[in-house]
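stage 2 :: seqdesign
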């Protein structure tokens, strides 16, 4: 009675349909697992679409997608009827809609992002952290309109808030229908989440999360992700200082991804509860950043006449993906 219920209700509904269709207990279990597979596949498609918005190079889109597909933690958890894939898909959909909103300023995309965050929170408590990302960018995009178009801004915020609550309530209806009973148990459970499983040798996430993240994505992918992160932090600073050029839409997407990583990671800094599957929602952000970083790196060396270096970079990336796929294969065979 104290945990979000969206995945449970979806799995129950699918299981009920399978049972009514004459399926066995095994069929019900397989159908529940297939939902996780479907959500994992849809997440990869969204990653491809985000990379497509940032780059016209099809190889960048494919690279971002393959970096996600070659993730051991994604392959492992997509095999189970578990809530982490529901969280991953909801966060990825919210991120995709947020990028669309920032590029095209259509409020419908913003509403979809807020509704998706409600669904993410209804899948797992950590999903609510992404709400801070949406609020940050809502303020950025509407800051100049607050005084001149305050009624429209308030209307947008109000509808977005209602949709967030709706996303949560649809998945966890007892939060509305049995409010007092639910929140008296939910709030203490949510507050204990960060210290769940804490032991004498536990390390706070600010220091300990790095090793767990490396375990989640693999050593070589981990270093590729971190290099991409540092590269774009430095590049965006130089871009704002007008030291380097950057395409405006591409810069917006990169900034959105960087801020999403930082804000969504903040609760992990103070948590003792961080297992590899908790880092699944970061996979879309880092996969797109890594794909764009490789594009930048190849362009950088080619501009300096170092064609051989571009070949080396491409070979290195292919090896990283191959090693990651071998890890996925070994996990699948377990």
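stage 2 :: out
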């Amino acid at each position: 009675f104290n945990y979000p219920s969206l995945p449970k209700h979806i799995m129950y509904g699918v299981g009920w349909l399978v049972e009514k269709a004459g399926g066995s207990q095994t069929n019900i279990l397989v159908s529940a697992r297939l939902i996780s597979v479907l959500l994992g596949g849809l997440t990869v498609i969204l990653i491809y679409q985000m990379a497509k918005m940032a780059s016209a190079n099809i190889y960048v889109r494919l690279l971002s997608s393959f970096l996600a597909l070659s993730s051991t933690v994604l392959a492992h958890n997509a095999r189970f009827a578990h809530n982490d894939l529901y969280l991953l898909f909801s966060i990825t959909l919210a991120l995709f809609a947020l990028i669309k909103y920032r590029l095209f300023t259509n409020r419908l995309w913003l509403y979809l992002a807020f509704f998706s965050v409600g669904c993410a929170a209804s899948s797992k408590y950590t999903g609510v952290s992404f709400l801070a990302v949406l609020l940050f960018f809502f303020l950025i995009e509407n800051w100049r309109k607050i005084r001149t178009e305050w009624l429209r801004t308030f209307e947008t915020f109000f509808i977005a808030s209602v949709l967030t609550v709706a996303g949560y309530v649809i998945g966890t209806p007892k939060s509305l229908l049995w409010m007092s009973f639910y929140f008296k148990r939910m709030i203490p459970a949510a507050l204990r989440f960060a210290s769940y499983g804490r032991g004498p040798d536990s390390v706070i996430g600010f220091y300990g999360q790095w090793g767990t993240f490396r375990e989640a994505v693999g050593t070589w992918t981990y270093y590729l992700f971190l290099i991409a992160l540092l590269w774009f932090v430095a590049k965006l600073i130089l871009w704002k200082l007008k030291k380097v050029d950057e395409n405006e839409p591409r810069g917006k997407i990169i900034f959105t991804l960087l801020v999403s990583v930082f804000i969504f990671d903040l609760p992990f800094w103070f948590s003792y509860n961080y297992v590899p599957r908790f880092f699944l929602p970061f996979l879309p952000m880092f996969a797109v950043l890594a794909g764009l970083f490789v594009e930048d790196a190849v362009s950088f060396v080619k501009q300096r006449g170092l064609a051989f270096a571009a070949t080396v970079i491409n070979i290195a990336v292919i090896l990283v993906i191959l090693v990651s796929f071998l890890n996925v294969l070994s996990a699948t065979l377990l």
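stage 3 :: structure notes
- The chain has a mean pLDDT of 88.
- The longest helix spans residues 25-54.
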